[in-house]
Amino acid sequence: MGDSRDTGDLLRQWRDAGGSTRRRGHRSAEVAGLLRFAFYGRFSTKEHQDGDSSRRWQLECAGQVIAGFGSVVIEYLDAGVSRRRAWQNRPSAAALLNAIASGAPGFHAVVVGEYERAFCGRQAFGIAELLQEHGIGLWLPETLGPVDLSDPVHRAVLIEIGARSMREIQRDRHRAIEAMSAQARYQGRYLGGRPPYGYLLADVGPHPNASHARWGRQQQHLAPDPQTAPHVKQIFARRLAGDSMNSIARDLNARGVACPSAFDRDRNRHRRASGWACTTVAAILANPRYTGRQVWNRQPTRHHDTQAVGAVGAEPRQQRANRHDWIISDRIVHEPLVSEADFVAAQTVTALARPADNSTRTYQLVGVLRCATCDRRLISHWSYGRAWYRCRHGYSSTSVTKDRLRGLYLREDRLLEQISALLPASRRAASPGITDIADYLRLRHMIAVCDGTSVTVEPDFSATAH
C-alpha cells in the first residue's frame, strides 16, 4: 500500500485529466485560445469581504464567458472602491484605461465577472464606447459575450441591469441611513469616525449586533480624555467670558498646548499640525457633542444620482448639513464637557468690533496696496476715526513670536495723495479728484508698493499672469 499523499496526487491528476472513462465516438481536444483578455474585478469593503474569494469567483464567471475564445493574460482588481466611482477615479480601472490609451495594452478585450461589480447605472455605455474607440472589446456575462452597442437587445440588457444596480444602491443606502438615524437618536450609538478633540473611545460592553458580539467586538462610546478634556473646558469658559477666538488660540500656542492634529497625528496625517488657529477653536466651539449628546449627520455624503447618458460616474461629496437636519440623541449618552445652556450661550458670543453709530466703513484702496518688505497685500484697518492700511508681515494673532519685524501702518488719505502725485499729469488734469485712484490702478493692472517712507506704482503681474 503506497503513501496516501501519493494516492491523493494521483487522484487529482486523474480528475484533472477528465477521468479514465472514455466515451465512444468523442475525442478530447482543446480549442486554442485566440484572444487575449484583461480581467477587471472589484469589491467595495475590505473589512467585510475576503478579497481573494471575491476575486476568484468573479474570475471564474469571466472565464466561463470567454471559454473557447481566449484566456486572461492580465488582471485589474479594485479593492475598497464603490461602484459609483468613475473608472478614471478607481486605481486599477484607471491603470487599465491608461494601458489602453498607451496604444499597446497587450490584450484584445476586457472581461468582467458581473456587471454590478464593474458598473453602476449607465457607466457601461461610456466605457464600452471608450474601449471601442481603441479597438478593444467589452465582454459581459449578461450579454453572453462581447457587447455590441448597435444591437438593440444588448442596449436593452445594459439599461435594465444598470437600472437594477442603481435601485439596489439607493435601497441599501436608504435603509442604512434610516437605521443609523434611529441608532443615533434613540440609542445614542457611536457610529464611527474620529472622536472629537477632548474625547477618546472606550468599550462599554458587547456589541449590540449579536453576530459581531460572538466575534468579541465591543460597543464603544466617547469618554473624556484626561489630557485634552481640560483644554476644551477652558476654551468654552474663555469664550463665555467674551474672549475672541484669536486670543484663545494665541494663549494655547503660548502655553505649548498641542493642537488636535498634532496631538492625534495618526488620525490627522492630512493636516499640517502647525499649531492652534482661529478655525480650530471655532470648530470646537461649534461641536454639540461636547454637551454629552450624540450628534450624527452634521456632514453627510451627498450623492449625485442623476447622470447624463454616457456619463462614466459621479463622485459623492461631503457637505455641511443644515442644523435642522442633524440627528441628536434623545438623552445624554457620554460625559459632557460643557452644559447645554453654556454651549448655546457660546454660539451667541461675538468679539467683532462694531461702529458705535452703526455706520458703514469704506476703504478705497483695498486690493491695490502691497508691502515692499514682505510682498503681501495690505489689509484695511480702522483707527482714530479714519481708514488705515497695515501689514504684519505674516504674523498671526494666534502665534507667539519674540523677534519679528515692526508692522507697517499707513493712512489712506496720505496714500491717496502720494499715489496721485505719481500718476501722469494728463490723468490728474482730466480727473483732479483722488477718489477714483483705486479704479484707475485696477483697470490698468497696477499696484502701489509701500514701505514706511515711500510709495511706488508698478505693474501688478499677479493680476495678468493668467
Tag the structure with descriptive keywords.
466 residues, alpha/beta, Rossmann fold, 3-stranded mixed beta sheet, 17 strands, 36% helix, 17% strand
Brief overview, please?
The chain is α/β, with parallel strands linked by helices and 466 residues long.
Uncertain regions: pLDDT < 50 for 5+ in a row?
19-33, 305-314
| Adjacency order of strands in the biggest sheet | 2-1-3-4-5
The level-1 CATH class of the domain at 32-165 = Alpha Beta
Question: How would you characterize the largest beta sheet?
Answer: 5 strands, mixed
Give the second-level CATH assignment, the architecture of the domain at 32-165.
3-Layer(aba) Sandwich
Distance between the termini: 86 Å
Globally, the shape reads extended
Mean pLDDT: 80
Detailed description of the structure:
Helix content is 36%, strand content 17%. It has a five-stranded mixed beta sheet. Strands 12-16-17 form a three-stranded mixed beta sheet, with helices on one face. A hairpin with a 4-residue loop joins strand 4 (137-140) and strand 5. It is an alpha/beta fold and 466 residues long. The protein has 16 helices and 17 strands. Helix 9 (245-254) packs across helix 11 (278-285). Among the domains are: 32-165, Resolvase, N-terminal catalytic domain (Rossmann fold, 3-Layer(aba) Sandwich); 223-294 and 329-348, no CATH class; 369-464, no CATH class.
Spell out the blueprint of helices and strands.
Blueprint: H1 4-16, E1 35-43, H2 51-66, E2 70-79, H3 91-101, E3 109-112, H4 115-118, H5 123-133, E4 137-140, E5 145-146, H6 152-187, E6 199-206, H7 210-214, E7 218-224, H8 229-240, H9 245-254, H10 260-263, H11 278-285, E8 295-296, E9 301-302, E10 317-318, E11 327-328, H12 340-348, E12 369-371, E13 379-383, E14 386-391, E15 408-411, H13 412-422, H14 425-430, H15 437-443, E16 446-450, E17 455-459, H16 461-464
Parallel strand pairs: 1-2, 1-3, 3-4, 12-16
Antiparallel strand pairs: 4-5, 6-7, 8-11, 9-10, 13-14, 14-15, 16-17
Helix pairs in contact: 9-11
